[in-house]
Amino acid sequence: IKAADINSSGHLQIGGVDALTLADKYGTPVLVYDVAKIRDQIHRFRNVFEQEHVEYEVSYASKAFASVAIYQVMKQEQAHIDVVSGGELATAIKADFPMEKISFHGNNKSEAELSMALEHGVGTIVVDNFHEIDLLKQLIADSSKRVNVQLRITPGIAAHTNSYIATGQVDSKFGFDVDSGQADKALRELMAISQINVTGIHAHIGSQIFDVQGFKGVAHKLVQIAADWQEKYDFHTKILNVGGGFGIKYSADDHPIHPEDFVRAIIDVVKKSAQESGIDMPAIWIEPGRSIVGPAGYTLYTIGSRKDIPGLLPYVSVDGGMGDNIRPALYNAKYEAVLARDPQAQNIEEVRIAGKYCESGDILSDRQPLPETHPGDVLVMLDTGAYDYAMASNYNRNPRPAVVFVENGRDQLVIKRESYDDLTHLDLNYSL
Ligand code: LLP
């Protein structure tokens, strides 16, 4: 928390709006995004490429947080987006997002999803496997459609992160294996289809990565593959897509470099390796999700009950939990929290922050220093913008929270809080 995040009443402010005012106006739990932070991170990525005079695209990996409003922000920013399902695509369509700036990812896109993408003129299909090539071939056979594809390879690079979110190692469900010749075979199959234009090669090594080595490795590997394919098949790649995964700082224990420094390192390697191997400098695409929206998100909760156990850390419970943030329970993810009324108050004790869900594992933080708290206090969890709302559930039939965007001292509801009617509106009576 910086001094600029505290207003004249000493309260936390988000995008210039008092967090207590937001909690009051929208109720809790509520996820609040500081939109200026989102725009700023996109600009930072862009600046690196501009300074290095490299052709590029910043493609927001919208699985981190997909909604009509965020796609509208991306449209304003003229960014690209990645979608990974018909549902994300439908949301982008609803947001009137330009279809040519969308890349469609996934290791098992259905025929319906692929034909939806073709019908709407999605800019790039990131082809993942042979079944998908067959489906695409059938779907475009009786149309005059042309389609751009990037070919996703498994780079064989193990990223040091949680195994649930590491994707680069050879033993992965994503992409074509290189060493066994699968990727070559895929390229030749795709090149043989006249309506398909292979624009690039794609790899993604994982998420929440702190180590720049993995990105340098993947950049080098992609250039090598490009050079090999140019020599063998006279295939000239226009784009190398290095994926996303740039780690962010959630807690004092995290020490990532700035997201844009990963990009600088990638550009360096691609430039050098391209020169060495004699291929034209390709455009570089990145697909950050977490680093764009993570630090911009703040979840506001209201504190309720408390349980003290002699000799152990107290449990302080809030009105949300694993339904709006599964990450601590699923990945043992750490977050930090402050009190909205006094984010810089002196801490007097360490507590565990418990959710309200009927599960012992529903602990949002297993050790959080806090000042004295009272029921009704608003607790703010920081950096909750990525993979929180996106992975929210209705476990215990709790409604999902509202989402609010703030910018320049103004706030706007962008996803309504679910009501009990919303929770039951798909339910039907049983009468057999
Ligand atoms: N590109 C591809 C192909 C991806 O699979 C992903 C993330 C990204 C880009 C964006 O990665 P990011 O920049 O956001 O790290 N639910 C997990 C994260 C799963 C990431 C899946 N793929 C979590 O909460 O940590």
TrEMBL record:
Report the Pfam families cross-referenced here.
Orn_Arg_deC_N
User: Could you tell me the EC number(s) of this protein?
Assistant: 4.1.1.20
The EC category is lyase
Which residues, renumbered to this chain, carry the PTM N6-(pyridoxal phosphate)lysine? 63
A single Gene Ontology MF term assigned here is:
diaminopimelate decarboxylase activity
Membrane-spanning parts? none
The UniProt catalytic activity note for this protein reads: meso-2,6-diaminopimelate + H(+) = L-lysine + CO2
**Keyword Mitochondrion among UniProt keywords:** no
The pathway to which it is assigned is: Amino-acid biosynthesis; L-lysine biosynthesis via DAP pathway; L-lysine from DL-2,6-diaminopimelate: step 1/1
The residues the record assigns to binding pyridoxal 5'-phosphate are: 245, 287-290, 387
Keyword Lyase on entry: yes
Q: Where is the Orn/DAP/Arg decarboxylase 2 N-terminal domain?
A: 36-293
Q: Where does substrate bind?
A: 290, 327, 331, 359, 387
Q: Enumerate the cofactors the protein uses.
A: pyridoxal 5'-phosphate
Q: Which UniProt keywords apply?
A: Amino-acid biosynthesis, Decarboxylase, Lyase, Lysine biosynthesis, Pyridoxal phosphate
Q: PANTHER family, from UniProt? A: DIAMINOPIMELATE DECARBOXYLASE, GROUP IV DECARBOXYLASE
Q: How does it assemble?
A: Homodimer.
Similarity comment: family membership:
Belongs to the Orn/Lys/Arg decarboxylase class-II family. LysA subfamily.
User: Its function?
Assistant: Specifically catalyzes the decarboxylation of meso-diaminopimelate (meso-DAP) to L-lysine.
**Listed name of the protein:** Diaminopimelate decarboxylase
